[in-house]
Amino acid sequence: MGKKDIKTRDDIFKLVSTFYAKVRLNEILAPFFDRIDDWEEHFERLTNFWESSLFLKTKYLGDPLVAHAKADREHGNKISELHFGVWLNLWFETIEELFEGETAENAKRRARKMGTFLYMQIFKARQNS
Q: Binning pLDDT at 50, 70 and 90, where does residue 77 land?
């Protein structure tokens, strides 16, 4: 039986929660996420973000750059391309385990663009602080 595409909010929640279970176990990424106390709220926020990004129907209220720049500062400006590479590889791996189709491929493309943008903006924020 083939995998289905990402079609619903529940699909996105499954993707986000499965992905972050891996992140929390990853020795490179886990330290950056240890400060999250309410994982259910985090999953909800990220489900909103990805639903907005993929389906253009939920308004995401938040600024991912602020959260990532803060995490970078709190960890001594140590977020690097390695971290974004590991994050992206885990994201792709999770999508490929759970889904296939046009929206799944779009989720990969958007994550790649977002990772590049966030990394460049974090580097810029370091120079402005």
A: confident
Are 30 and 23 in contact, with CB atoms under 8 Å apart?
yes
- Residue 90 is predicted with a pLDDT of 98
Sign of the torsion formed by the C-alpha atoms of 74, 119, 52 and 112:
negative
The percent of residues in the chain predicted with pLDDT above 90, rounded, is 63
Mean pLDDT of the chain: 91
Query: Token pair 């959260």 is at which residue?
Result: 67
Class of domain 9-128: mainly alpha
**What does the radius of gyration of the chain's CA atoms come to, in whole angstroms?**
15
Please spell the DSSP secondary structure of the chain, one letter per residue.
-PPPPP-SHHHHHHHHHHHHHHHHH-TTTHHHHTT---HHHHHHHHHHHHHHHHHS-S---S-HHHHHHHHHHHTTS---HHHHHHHHHHHHHHHHHH--SHHHHHHHHHHHHHHHHHHHHHHHHHHH-
Provide the residue ranges of all domains of the chain, joining segments of one domain with +.
Answer: 9-128
